[in-house]
Amino acid sequence: MAVYVKGRSISPPPSYDEVLREDAAARKHDTNGSYVHPLPLSGSVPELPVEMLSYIMQYLSVSDRKDAALVCKKWYEASLAPQVQRDVMVSVKSSIINPRPFTGLRNRPGFHLELSDINGSPNSEQLLKACEVNLSSRLLTLSLKGSNVSQSVLVAMLDRCSNLTSLDVSGCNNLTFLGSGCGKHLTSLSLPHLQSLDLSSLRHLTDAILTAFLRMAPGLRSLELASTPFLFSSSDIYSSGSNGRPNSAALTFNRFLHELSYLHSLISLNLSRTSISNSALIALAKVPKLALESLLLVSCKDLTDAGIIALVQEQPSLRKLNLSSNSQLSAVSVKYAATLQLDSLNLTKVRLYGAELRPLEKLGRITHLVLSASVLQHLPASEVEKLFHVWSQPLRHLDLSYCAGLSNAVFFSLCHHLVNLTQLNLSSCFRFDDITLREISKCLVNLRGLNISWCKHITDMGLFGVFHTDFTHNCTNECRCDKGRSVSYFEYTPPVKDIAPREIVPDIEQVHTALAEQGGQGQFPITRLRKLESLDLSVCSKITDLGVAETLIFPSLVSLNLSMCTRLTDASLMAIVANNPLLERVSLAQCREITDRGVFDLLVDCRRLSHLDISGCRLITDSTIHALMKQESKLKSLDVSLCNISMEAIDTLERFLPSIHTIHKRYTQANDIQPLIRKC
Fold first, then answer.
1. What value, to the nearest 5°, has the Cα angle with vertex 587 and ends 585 and 590?
2. Residue 50 lies inside a defined structural domain of this protein
C-alpha cells in the first residue's frame, strides 16, 4: 500500500476529497505560510515519460533546470532534450581544465559555444584541435572574445560552421595582416546565415580584414565596431589602390561606407569609443538603402548637436539610440532625438536642466530610459509629473542614478505613475530616504531589479516600511538634505565622506514602537516586492541585522549586494540563506563583522551560489577556504582580497576545486594586510 509523509507520522493515503478538505482547513487557520502539504512518495504516482518531463522543463529557469537534472538519471536525460537546451551556451576555459571531447556536441541539433583563454598553451592547442575536428554545421553561435587565435585556425573553424548565426572575435589581436593565401581563403568562405558579427577592440583591424568579414556575410543584421582604429580623414593617402583592393595597413571610414552600401539588411551598428566626427556621421546616415534601428555612439567625444540632428533626419527608423558620455551634446540633441519613435534611449552624462526635459514627453512608446548623471539641478515635481504620466504604460526600465537634483516629491510621483516598472536604478541619489523606500514598496510591486546603493540615509525603518513621527531629523546649516530649506540650484559631486553625516540609526525599541503604532495597514515593507530578482543595498551603512533578518525575504532573489554595510554580522547571513534559497551572486565586500561561520552557512545552504565577494572582511581566515573544498562548492568566481588568508590555502583551492574560474587574491597574506588595517 502506498504511504505518504505528513510531518513525522506515516499513515495510509487519504482520498482526494479528504486532501482538499484538509488543505482548505489548514490554509484557513494558518496565516504565516508554515503549512506543508502532504506529498506522496514516488511509488504512489505513475512515472512521467521523458518527453513530458522535457516539456515541463522548458518553463523552468536555468538554475532550476540544473537542480532538476540532478534528481535522477531520467530527469538528467530529459534536461538534455533539444527543446530544453536550445539557448544554452557551452563555455570552455582552456586555462582551467583540460578540454573534454566535443563528440557529444556534434549530435545536438543546434548549440552555442564560447571559448576563452586561448593563449598558445598546450591546453589551448588541444582545445582548438578538438574544435576543428568536431565542430559542424550544427553550431549556431561561436564566441572567441579576447582569445589569441590566429587567422589559419579561425579559417579552419569557420569552414566547418556553415550555419553560424553569430560570431564574436572581439579583442582577438592576433588577427593581423592577412597574407595572400590566408586572406584568399577567408574571402572564399561563405556564411549566408550569419546575422551578428562583433569586431570590437581589434587592434590591428584593417580594410582588408573588415572587407573579408563583411563579404562572407551578405545577410548581416548586427555589426559591432566599438573601439576600432578608424581613420576618418578625407585624405587619399590610405585609400584603395588602383586595382581596387582594400588597404592592408589601415582602417578607413570611407572603405567601411563603401562596404556598408552592400549590406542592405543591416539594422544594428555600434561605433562606440571611436573618433567619429559630425561629417562622418552624416555620411553614414546618408548611405543608400541603410535603415538602422539601433545605433550606439557611446563616448564619441567629437560629436556635437549638428551630427545628431542630421542623423535623426536621415534615419527616422531608429528605435534604439545610445548617446551616453558625449560631453558636447546638449538639450538640442535630446529635442531632436525625442521626435523618433524610440523604444530605448540612453542619455548618461548629457546634462539636462529643468524645462529641457519637456521634449521627452514625445517618447510615448519608450520602454528603456537611462538618465544617469543627467539631472544635476534641483528639479521640482511639477516638471516631471507629465513625463511620468506619458511613460506610465510603456516604461519598464528606468535609470536615474547619480541624479542629485531629484527630491522626495519626484520619487513619490515616480512611484505613483510608473507602476509597471520592472527595473529601477536610483544609486547615489543622496536625497533618497526611508519614506521613499516605503513608497517604492507600496507601489512598485512588479520590480525585478532594484538598485539603491550609496543611498546612505536608508535605515531599518525603510526596510520595514514604517515611519515614526517622533523619529525626525533636525537640519543644520551644513546638512545636505532638502528638508527645511529651499534649494534652487544644486550640482552635486559625491565626496569621499559626508560633510555632515546624519548618524541616525534607530534601535530595536524604536523600530518595535513604530511597528506597533503603524499596525499592519500602515506598513509597506520591502518584502512586498515578491518578484525581486536583484537587489543592491551596498553602502547603506545604517541597516542592521534586525532589518535584514526580518525583511529580506524574496523567493526569486538571485543577486544580492550588501557591500560596505558595516553593521551586519553573521546573524544577517543566517537569515539571508534561510529566506532566499535561489541566491547565485552575493557581495559582502568590507562587511568587517562577517566571520568564517557566516560564510560557512552561506556555502552550505546556498547550493546555487556561483559568485561570492568577501573582499575586505578581515575576520575571514583559511577556514573559509577549507569549507569551500569540503563542501565541493559550485563557485565560479571568488574575491578574497584583503582577507586574512594565506597564499598556501588559495593555491590548494585552485588545485582541488577547478570549477572556480576567477579568484581575486590581492593582499591576502597576513603580513601584507596588517599595514593596510592600521591605515584604516
1. 170
2. no
Q: Pick from 213, 259, 251: which is nearest to 231 by CA? A: 251
Amino acid at 30: D
Buried-exposed string 441-455: b where 16+ CB fall within 10 A, e elsewhere: bebbeebbbbbbbbb
Burial of 51 (0-12, 13-18, 19+ CB in 10 A): exposed
User: Which amino acid would we find at residue 104?
Assistant: G
Q: C-alpha cell of 213?
A: 568579414
Q: Are residues 94 and 31 in the same domain?
A: no
User: What average pLDDT does this structure show over 557-575?
Assistant: 95
Average pLDDT over every residue of 15-43: 47
Who wins on pLDDT, 612 or 157?
612
pLDDT for 8 beyond 80: no
Residue 161 grid coordinates: 560552421
C-alpha cell at 390: 506619458
| Domain at 340, CATH number | 3.80.10.10
Residue 238: its pLDDT value, please? Answer: 53
Yes or no: say if 276 and 310 are a contact pair by the CB < 8 Å rule.
no
- Among 279-288, 348-357, 633-642, the range with the most confident prediction by mean pLDDT is 279-288
Has this prediction a pTM greater than 0.85? no
Domain end (from 547, 574, 599): 547
pLDDT in tens, 245-269: 778 788 999 999 999 999 999 999 9
Strand partners, 612: 586, 638
DSSP string of 483-540, one letter each residue = SSS--S-------SS-SS-------HHHHHHHHHHHTTTT---GGG-TT--EEE-TT-
